[in-house]
Write a structure and sequence with these properties.
mainly beta, 5-stranded mixed β-sheet
Length: 334
């Protein structure tokens, strides 16, 4: 006696299926318990299901009843008993696989046939030593989501030139398994400055199962491997004497360098695609100068000129209240 998965209504063996494309759509294939020679009496058996895929009305698949009507009741162990009818060679039931919108790992359905503990096999019928179980691989068709977040408030955020930093997390919808990779090239676009980027900020990365490479031509590439789910890029402002106000836009690269995946049955999709950061410049701040007038004689008037150097960033100009204290030896009247 053996068991196997076959195409619906046939005896053609199959070992892999892709879940239905749309949520709640269904795909049917058969589980077949067979004997090599028909018997004059019914042949009882026990059939049990296991694997990562879950069976039941709220799970990934159900075992339908005879003729595709209703469902076959399973016990708490995921098992049911049945029998191959007398003068027949197979017992067949349809498995109905349900589609969903959930990003999942590749799952398996395992069916194993054994003796019914409450009914002996007829003489001459045995359980196969090589085909008593069969496995079906279920490929997920839902994309893995990539989301970009940061440690500041939602939207744009500002860091100080003097030691400011921000962490940007690139998070996948689930942890990757062996054979899966996701590569996320990141583009850093600078605004408001004409000199090299490294005068304004530096980057580093971290994350379990995440590797990275960086060069001027290709920028920063995060590669997620088995066990990886979150990669973190830290951007640190670099103190310098430049007076530029700098903005940095971090986003997924595009075209041939767009994020990609291997071994992912459902591919990838993005949610948040970019984050804008401002580095608050602390150079070129205004200063006050007090300049005396020329020499005077007794009874004359002394003059002082108070001036403010222009701010390097005119948008930061504001009214400035000044208190002036005058002191001198001798008699004078302000």
């Amino acid at each position: 006696m053996s068991v196997g998965f076959v195409e619906a209504g046939t005896s053609t063996a199959i070992t892999e299926q892709t879940e239905p494309a749309a949520n709640n759509d269904r795909l049917e294939f058969d589980v077949r318990v067979a004997i090599s020679q028909a018997q004059s009496v019914a042949v009882p058996f026990r059939l049990c299901f296991s694997g990562e895929a879950t069976i039941g009305s709220s799970g990934d698949y159900v075992l339908l009843g005879a003729g595709g009507q209703g469902t076959t009741t399973l016990d708490a162990s995921g098992c049911a008993t049945g029998e191959i009818a007398a003068n027949d060679q197979a017992w067949v039931r349809a498995l109905s696989l349900q589609g969903d919108n959930e990003d999942e790992l590749t799952e398996t359905i395992v069916a194993a046939v054994s003796e019914d503990p409450n009914a002996a096999l007829p003489a001459g019928v045995t359980i196969s030593s090589t085909a008593a179980s069969a496995a079906m691989r279920i490929r997920d068709n839902d994309p893995t989501t990539i989301t970009m977040t940061h440690t500041g408030a939602l939207g744009n955020t500002t860091i100080d030139e003097d030691g400011g930093e921000i962490s940007i997390a690139i998070q996948l919808g689930r942890e990757l398994q062996n054979g899966e990779t996701v590569t996320t090239p990141l583009a850093f676009t600078r605004t408001g400055a004409s000199t090299a980027s490294n005068e304004y900020y530096s980057t580093s990365y971290d994350g379990k199962g995440v590797s990275a490479s960086f060069d001027v031509a290709n920028g920063l590439r995060l590669v997620f491997g088995a066990g990886a789910r979150t990669g973190e890029v830290t951007i640190r402002a670099v103190q310098n004497a430049n007076t530029d106000n700098v903005g940095i836009k971090v986003q997924y690269d595009t075209g041939a360098r767009a994020p990609s995946s291997t071994g992912m049955d459902g591919g990838i999709t993005y949610r948040k695609k970019q984050i804008s950061i401002a580095i608050a410049n602390d150079d070129g701040l205004p200063s006050l100068n007090v300049s005396p007038g020329g020499a005077i004689t007794e009874g004359g008037s002394a003059t002082f000129t108070i001036s403010k150097t222009p701010n390097a960033n005119p948008t930061d100009e504001a009214t400035l209240d000044v208190n002036l204290r005058v002191s001198q030896q001798g008699a004078y009247a302000p």
